[in-house]
Design brief:
3-stranded antiparallel β-sheet, globular, alpha/beta, 13 helices, 14 strands, Aspartate Aminotransferase, domain 1, about 350 residues, about 15% strand, 7-stranded mixed β-sheet, 2 domains, Aspartate Aminotransferase, domain 2
Amino acid sequence: MTITIPMVDPAGEYRSLKDEIDAAVSRVLASGRYILGPEGDALEGELAAYVGAPHAVGVNSGTDALHLALLAAGIGPGDEVIIPSFTFFATAEAVSYTGATPVFADVREDTFNLDVSRLPISSKTRAIIAVHLFGQCAALDALSRICKDNKLILVEDCAQSLGAEYQGRRAGAWGDFGCFSFYPTKNLAAAGDAGLVTAKEKGHADTLRMLRHHGSRKTYLHERVGWNSRLDELQAAVLRVKLRHLDRFNEARRRVADVYRTKLKGVALPAEDARGKHVYHQFTIRSAQRDAIRERLAANGIASSVFYPIPIHKQPAYEGIARSISLPVSESLASQVLSLPIHPLLDEASVERICALVG
């Protein structure tokens, strides 16, 4: 059946901001500066200020943001990095790119974020990646304390959480690094791949700028092997327009979530940590009848998604290091979670229709 209520509506978002986005794109095209120009510089400054971080460095994607942040921190072969198993594969992938080993940890059933009471810290642990899943921050006070006590690097995976808060500070302002994705479905969405890293230390930011540009700070002088991971000017210009509307869009997502909370029956709703502010990149319910609900929605032209059907420690790519691992909460969630449509343009009548079919 034709989908009449999609999960997201990037084209609709463009239409709502068409004049501003078209003007920004035209400005870049007319300038002739398409790589490492004034739009990227301005976006870095604006996002650093928005997040509340001293430094920000634009990169090619959220995956590159994680990878280069770990490299800038000196993570490499022989090191271990703790990550939640219930997240997107890129979090583990970025660790593996460095030659380090991802160590999988379980999550809380209510928030879907790292269970800080069961972190498998060892003598080889060098960093923890705290994923703020679905738009809600992990327990950053406890994670910051654990990292300080154990001399570990704290990396925030903020791919789904730009604008989220914890104890009055925004995601990306707590850790040594905050790693953002601007994939077209994100709360702040580019027209393609794009990412950014926030950093507390200037030395880390300088290293990130070198790594993203073939290991070079000075033209044709390469201090180390780097990557081609630059955020292009067109994407930066689009993101600068949308950043001005981000808080409004996030509040619209929260209003959609409020309707879901009022109308949905018979399923477990996502928890909201009272210490923070959820920005609802996804609205994810839990039900033992997940598959039946999904089929019923699809039969009525309504999209839904399962994020994520297989925890990373169960993925074939990691069976060599995770064969004997049991993470019961992650495994249970993978069999029960279902994400419903949520985006700033979703109207209340559509949400009520979805709720009627879920219940």
